[in-house]
Amino acid sequence: MTHDDVTAPTATPLGATAYLADEEFLEHLLVELGDVRSVHGRLVIADGPPRPAAWAQNIWYDPVLIPIQSIKQGAKALRAIQRNWALYGFQHHRRAQLIQDNLPHVSAKPVSFFTPPPTAPLGSWTLLNENTILAAAHCSSPYRNGEIELIEDKVTPPNRAYLKLWEAFTRIGYTPKPGELCIDLGACPGGWTWVMQSCGANVIAVDKAPLDPRIAALPGVSERRESAFGIKPADIGPVDWLACDVICYPSRLYRMIQGWLESGLARNYICTLKFQGETDHETARAFAAIPGSQLVHLCQNKHELTWIKLGA
After folding, report:
1. Nearest to 245 by CA among 302, 311, 177
2. What is the C-alpha separation between 36 and 220, in angstroms, rounded?
């Protein structure tokens, strides 16, 4: 065994935060962050404390630089910080994988809805070059590289949009409860209605187009054949959840949501911002600024963001 293998290298704070983008949306993250220090694959390093970053799949808090001379020394240095690590590899793939292979195994199996999020700390790391590890013991997501892979139901739901709601509920560790009342704006063909009904909630499905007949026939589901934008909060009354996956410009969605917020009639919100053409960063920032809410890019989102606001 060499001297390098038994000597623990010194970890140096980077004085920055690292943000991992989805493969297709690195440019969106760069626009959102503004000034950045460097980009490594789809990992962006920006000076200072964490910034709002809806387009970040995972945020690495307080990352450190660790100089290494060998694979074993790299694994030992990471194990000295904590047990569980997830590799983000963008170069030096064989060397990085050999280091990861010398760390405790972290399961990456698909999970069932609604599996509680992992509670064990999971750090993230990468090789900036052959002899330098960038590592963060604490990240925004408890999942490997922020990726939640779900075991799909390929039979019951009428479309794959249900996966967005499954992922969102899994991320926040919270779902509609039996007996609660939900309104699903732009419900057709009924994927989101099906999810909330399967949680035991009663669902008012609002859309000019009809639900899939199988979804419409479910207990606790009622339809209103009208526009999501024409309906007024007072027409419905208090609801426990407002869900909206309607296709529209985000600015129009924002105006509608402001009406519901002002009414005080919805307790929890989950809505999709669907960008058509250019990304409307201004409206995204407006949603992110709503107190008590979060704006995230789900693994199931494409050119979309998901806005979530939970009541007390």
Report:
1. 302
2. 50
CB 95 within 8 A of CB 127: yes
How sure is the predictor about 41, in pLDDT bands with cuts at 50, 70 and 90? very high
Rounded to an integer, the average pLDDT of 124-150 is 96
309 counts as catalytic:
no
User: pLDDT value at position 117?
Assistant: 85
- Angle at CA of residue 251, ends 246 and 257, nearest 5°: 65
Catalytic residue among 177, 274, 302, 309: 274
- How far apart, in whole angstroms, are the C-alpha atoms of residue 217 and residue 163? 21
Strands 132-136 and 138-139: unpaired
Parallel, antiparallel, or unpaired: how do β-strands 202-206 and 221-224 relate? Answer: parallel
Residue 11, pLDDT > 80, answer yes
The whole-angstrom separation of Cα 293 and Cα 299 is 19
C-alpha distance from residue 201 to each of 33, 50, 81, 206 (Å): 38, 36, 44, 16
| C-beta separation of 67 from 74 below 8 A | no
Compute the distance between CA of residue 287 and CA of residue 293 in angstroms, rounded to an integer. 8
Summarize pLDDT for 289-309 with one digit per residue, the tens: 999 999 999 999 999 999 999
- Residue 160 reports pLDDT greater than 80: yes
